[in-house]
Amino acid sequence: RRFLQTAAVLAAGIVLAACGKKEEPAAVEPAASAPAPAPAPTVYAVGTDAAYAPFESQDEKGEIVGFDIDVLKAIAAKAGFEVKFINTPWEGIFNSLGQGDRDIVISAVTITDERKQTLDFSDAYFDAAQLIAVRDNSKVTKFADLKKLKVGVQTGTTGDEAVTKLQGKTSTNIKRFESTPLALKELESGGVDAVVADNGVVIHHVANNPGAKFKTISDTEFAPEQYGIAVKKGNTAVLEKINQGLAGIKADGTYDQIYTKYFGAPPAKAEAPA
Ligand code: ARG
User: Fold this and answer.
1) How far is residue 148's CA from residue 214's CA, in Å, rounded to a whole number?
2) Which residue among 10, 49, 98, 190 sits deepest, i.e. has the most Cβ atoms within 10 Å of its Cβ?
3) CA 70 to ligand 1 center in whole angstroms
4) What is the per-residue pLDDT across 197-212, written as a single tens digit (0 to 9) for each?
5) How confident is the model at residue 23 (pLDDT cuts 50, 70, 90)?
6) Quick one: which atom of ligand 1 is closest to the CA of 128?
7) What is d(CA 113, CA 123) in angstroms, rounded to the nearest whole number?
8) What are the C-alpha distances in Å from 68 to residues 75, 108, 185, 225?
9) Which of 157, 182, 199, 227 should be mutated for ligand 1, with most atoms under 8 A from CB?
10) Ligand 1 pocket residue status of 202, Cβ below 6 Å
């Protein structure tokens, strides 16, 4: 009886083995002729100082939103990678690339020669300039008027650089804040006489805080600035994907669509050379 059972098990095993062998090629064939499954796209960690509306900020649910976010998401979709945005303080944001904590920084970062020594930048994706915010009863009419006044800036920004250049490195009248909204709050409460920051952010703040009673002053003394997306120096693999995606969304109208969503009209086109 035991022998019969064993024989039956063995026989079943042989049949199964035979079936398995027979089916094997059939199972392999369709897979070989079908396109290879796409490898899971790489997810890049993206640092952004999300206190900089309309470029990057947190909505009521704590989600990071804004122009920069939409632009990089569109670039990623075009170039075939994925992004995860991580709120990152401005101070130290560039070090996070060097340390490998972040793969990409998009944070309304102005491309400067100094930063280019330690970072690599994508092609420019936005034109900007510094803009002065003052209370609406201020007598300030131009940047030079800020020479002896108390001025608020976000530490380590191009606004900080401009005011430091005007007042001198040893000036005690520059008040540095960890975020631009904090500097603007200080202007509202009278702690500083002016704030110098990126035009898009100042305009957005003034429009959304009518109670603050600010006015803005532009000055051609401020150098034109361009925002770029930053990666660790030498990370050409990621940089090439970003530039390819950026060119793609500029060519297919997606970039203009996003720009219009945030700024009401597409970007002014550079004059065609005569
Ligand atoms: N464009 C200026 C700079 O690069 C300010 C950028 C600040 N960005 C931010 N998300 N806080 O210095």
Assistant:
1) 20
2) 49
3) 17
4) 999 999 999 999 999 9
5) very low
6) 1
7) 14
8) 10, 7, 24, 16
9) 157
10) no
Predicted ipTM beyond 0.85: yes
Q: Is the CB of 108 under 6 A from ligand 1?
A: yes
- Both tokens of residue 63? 């989600």
Residue 160 CB less than 6 A away from ligand 1:
no
pLDDT tens per residue across span 31-65: 556 778 877 778 999 999 999 999 999 999 999 99
Residue from 122, 118, 82 nearest 98 by CA = 118
Residue 52 near ligand 1, beta carbon < 6 Å: yes
230-232 and 214-217 beta bridge pairing? unpaired
Residue type at 34 in one-letter notation:
A
Give backbone dihedrals phi and psi of 115, rounded to 5 degrees, phi first. -65, -30
Query: What are the structure tokens assigned to 116, written together?
Result: 């280019």
